Amino acid sequence: MSPPSKSQKPCASTHDERERWRHEIRRAMQDQAQKQEIAKQEFVRAMQGQEQERLMRENYLRHQAPRMVKASWDLYESRWNQLTTLAPPKENSLRFVDIPWPSMEPLPTPTETRSPSSKYKTLPPSALQIASVLNQKAIGNFLLSPYHSEGKSGKSRLRAALLRFHPDKVRPWMSLIQESERNAVIMGVEIVVRCLNEEAKSA
């Protein structure tokens, strides 16, 4: 058999390059598939871990709920008693977070800013922060919880809260609020009254 001609050598070389190219593509695809499988397994493990944490947290809250709600309610009543009868604070001394709001949602953390005179000033909560604490669901869950005020109907609880946040009842202690926070407190009171009226319709 005669040796391959010079014109056949480039074809053989091209064939080898194509095979090498196909092999590299297959290997790259296999590597990519392996990485995707590893990422998928890690994602599944992370989701399982999050689900387990969620179940543990829900189980904890379910068992702790009665005590937590009762303690929050006792504090709510105590602070209202202090605000209105026992030892009212000095004028211009209270902030939004000092008001006993009917909600167990975490109150917004006060933020500070530096004024041109290099003095730090506490900013009042924003409307979004207020709405995250005071909304119909949060207020209804707190006031109508079965873990406090045993023997009182939902209507009587809502009526008592409406009396507390009625404008005529709020006006006497509004002077206790820092001037920079009064608009936020007024907004909070208006939201509470509106939510209480909505709850009363379905109570």
From TrEMBL:
Keywords attached to this entry? ANK repeat, Nucleus, Phosphoprotein, Repeat
Annotated GO biological processes are: negative regulation of canonical NF-kappaB signal transduction
Superkingdom of this entry's organism? Eukaryota
Q: Which InterPro entries match?
A: NFKBIL1
Major localisation: nucleus
A GO cellular component annotation here is: nucleus
Subcellular location per the Swiss-Prot or TrEMBL entry: Nucleus
The entry's protein name is Uncharacterized protein
